[in-house]
TrEMBL record:
It comes from Clostridium moutaii. This is DUF2935 domain-containing protein. InterPro entries: CotB-like (IPR021328).
Length: 309
């Protein structure tokens, strides 16, 4: 059973990362629908604003509580987040709350926190609220994917992207559920699952980037394609490690090297999108979104490498 300190810190750190991811998923869906589906635009916008509220409450609870490694990892916000939000709001007309980003930029960390039962109960209730909201969003994404696959609606988002963000919602839900149940996390087993999950996510990011770049951006297209192939192989390696065919330490080392490189690629790409130096149909916030996910995975890989050693 996890301690109160671990429960609080892991819960808040999870929401700081994933609540923002979910609100941006809602935004990407909202921006991708046509005017014919104004009801779906409204539904996605409602989810976006609900996750804004969840993230805002998480930020208030997190100040002086979460670990320094999380705030310094670049998974909560990056140097590009604010500009990417402003540009994306300008392009779409969606009122993205940059106040949250400003609030997150002032968060203080604390590796030696103390807790009380009242604070722990507030975090427990936040987790319950997150689970209900994520469950509803997952149902919405499932409905959208089904409608797209049966040609009932058109969206500018790839069917794979909708499936991709649905898997992330389900993953988030399971992680919160584990915390609520006070399950002990076996880091070795967690490494197998997380590396198989995130390597696939990194592979798909690469393929989305490849497909959304302008056809004239040959060098970037080739780089993205190479990352896609590399992370496809790493996904298979992680599955083989689960079957004990190869050691997990090898997968972790290989994944770490590849994720460091793709994080650099995404950072350069996001900078290029914000500065209007890259030809594409990639909304700037999508670039920053994928960069934060790479940074989150990098932090996890560093933890797993210590465990493996």
């Amino acid at each position: 059973m996890s301690s109160s300190i671990e429960f609080i810190r892991q819960s808040l750190e999870l929401h700081l990362f994933f609540a923002r991811i979910m609100k941006e998923h809602s935004f990407f869906l909202e921006a991708g629908f046509t005017q014919r589906d104004s009801n779906l635009i409204l539904e996605a916008d409602t989810f976006r604003m609900e996750f804004d509220k969840l993230l805002a409450d998480t930020v208030v609870l997190s100040n002086g509580v979460v670990s320094c490694s999380v705030l310094q990892s670049g998974e909560v916000i990056t140097p590009f987040t604010l500009k990417a939000e402003m540009a994306s709001a300008y392009f779409t007309g969606v009122n993205i709350s940059t106040n949250l980003t400003n609030a997150e930029s002032t968060l203080m960390c604390n590796d030696l926190m103390r807790v009380n039962s009242a604070f722990e109960q507030r975090v427990f209730m936040l987790n319950q609220r997150a689970m209900e909201l994520v469950s509803d969003l997952a149902e919405f994404k499932t409905r959208i994917l089904s409608a797209v696959m049966s040609c009932k609606i058109f969206t500018n988002n790839y069917p794979l992207l909708i499936d991709h963000i649905l898997r992330e919602a389900k993953f988030y839900y399971k992680l919160v559920q584990k915390l609520q149940n006070r399950e002990n996390i076996n880091l070795e087993m967690e490494a197998y699952k997380q590396e198989a999950f995130w390597n696939r996510i990194m592979a798909e990011h690469s393929k989305f980037i490849r497909g959304l770049l302008d056809p004239t951006e040959n060098e970037l297209i080739n780089t993205a394609n190479n990352f896609g192939n590399e992370f496809d192989k790493l996904t298979e390696e992680a599955k083989e490690a689960m079957d004990k065919t190869i050691p997990i330490s090898k997968v972790t080392d290989d994944s770490l090297k590849a994720t460091i490189e793709i994080s650099k690629f995404k950072a350069q790409g996001t900078q290029g999108l914000v500065d209007c130096k890259i030809r594409s149909i990639i909304i700037p916030l999508l670039g920053d979104h994928t960069l934060r996910e790479a940074n989150h995975y990098l932090r996890l890989l560093k933890i797993f490498r210590k465990v493996n050693v």
